[in-house]
Amino acid sequence: MPAGRPGPAAQSARRPPRPLSSLWSPLLLCVLGVPRGGSGAHTAVISPQDPTLLIGSSLQATCSIHGDTPGATAEGLYWTLNGRRLPSELSHLLNTSTLALALANLNGSRQQSGDNLVCHAQDGSILAGSCLYVGLPPEKPFNISCWSRNMKDLTCRWTPGTRGETFLHTNYSLKYKLRWYGQDNTCEEYHTVGPHSCHIPKDLALFTPYEIWVEATNRLGSARSDVLTLDVLDVVTRPAPPPVTTDPPPDVHVSRVGGLEDQLSVRWVSPPALKDFLFQAKYQIRYRVEDSVDWKVVDDVSNQTSCRLAGLKPGTVYFVQVRCNPFGIYGSKKAGIWSEWSHPTAASTPRSERPGPGGGVCEPRGGEPSSGPVRRELKQFLGWLKKHAYCSNLSFRLYDQWRAWMQKSHKTRNQHRTRGSCPRADGARREVLPDKL
């Protein structure tokens, strides 16, 4: 064949395609090399069988007859490619039982399942067949983009490569895994929004990054895309999803703090979805008195699962609720979404042991100050604690000691008052601080 002359595959590619009904069935699906003897007398084998070649390569093939009938020869044999008879000058006899074929500068296969190279007997019967795969190895996929419709699924699409067509069946697999641990997973629902796309319908974790990539494989090789790292919460959604978050914290317990009349302790358990070590959560608490609809919110709870409410009214029933806002340890580009509030939990503070007006106690005498500098200082101290130490990591030890001393002091004062006198020194009430705060 003269140098530079297009191969038979290139010549046939220039012709307009014929209707499918006029083509040989081998063009629709490559028939593997199963010999078929028209008269049953002869069989043959093509070598090489089912070769895979790069575009522009050459092929040397042979069709060798095997049979028990004396005089069986390769005379009269001919070749077809995708149902079209090849010119006789492309083949020649190697010996009495073998017909050789030489093809140069091969073009890409006309069908991804392979071109049909068939050896025929003189009467047109098929003696042997081979699939001829001519194409290119896959290129590195790129331009991966993903989105979620409901924050529980993920749809991704990609571009196969700059050259595009490989002329061979190329398998694309979308792989994904949790970034910091876990095994590779393979997407299974392909072609959902186009030829190069896949949909992951469920079982995705929130608030932690995923690694996503595409692997392309065909008979001539494989290629892998760059890894895309994303959090499902961070991808653009189509359309905008309804708010999705975790369940509220379960097992919220509210209890008294010893005999302290103005405090309650709140404890809860992290939602099951956040038990993974990659997750954290920040919490909010709100509370109200029994006969009110106005809630007070405590924001500075951080990621603790317990909190002490201070500065409450003695002898009062409170309803308490907790909610959480989850996020990943390694961060997310978008703020998390607050859960619903937990079911209200009720508890009451201890009743105050200080008697109220009209209780028959000794009232302060005229001209006696109701609160001196020491009391004002303690009230300022209490106010600071109420403002800064709700649920932070500050120790409540000083505050607890002060409250216990105040309650003990009130008990002592009340005992004296019930005897008809008030404790005095130098004509004025004395406020005594504890030895240690």
Task: State the main characteristics.
437 residues, 11% helix, 25 strands, single chain, five-stranded antiparallel β-sheet, rod-shaped, mainly beta, five-stranded mixed β-sheet, disordered C terminus
Notes on the protein architecture:
With 437 residues, the protein is mainly beta. Helix content is 11%, strand content 31%. It has four helices and 25 strands. A five-stranded mixed β-sheet has the order 2-9-8-4-5, with no helix packed on it. The longest helix has 22 residues. The radius of gyration is 43 Å and the shape is rod-shaped. The termini are far apart. The N terminus and C terminus are likely disordered.
Fraction of helical residues: 10-25%
Order of helices and strands: HHEEEEEEEEEEEEEEEEEEEEEEEEEHH
Total helix count?
4
Distance linking N and C termini: 105 Å
What do the pLDDT scores average to?
74
SS-based class: mainly beta
Rg value = 43 Å
Largest sheet: 5 strands, mixed
Please tally the β strands and state the result: 25
Shape: rod-shaped
Strand order of the largest sheet: 2-9-8-4-5
Low-confidence stretches: 1-28, 33-41, 238-244, 355-371, 420-437
Structure summarized in a few sentences:
It comes from Mesocricetus auratus (Golden hamster). Residues 343-374, 409-437 are annotated as: Disordered. The protein has helices at residues 8-14, 25-28, 373-388, 397-418, and strands at residues 42-47, 52-54, 59-67, 78-81, 84-85, 91-95, 98-103, 115-120, 126-135, 142-147, 154-159, 171-178, 185-186, 189-190, 197-200, 210-218, 221-224, 228-230, 253-256, 264-267, 279-289, 296-298, 306-309, 317-328, 345-348.
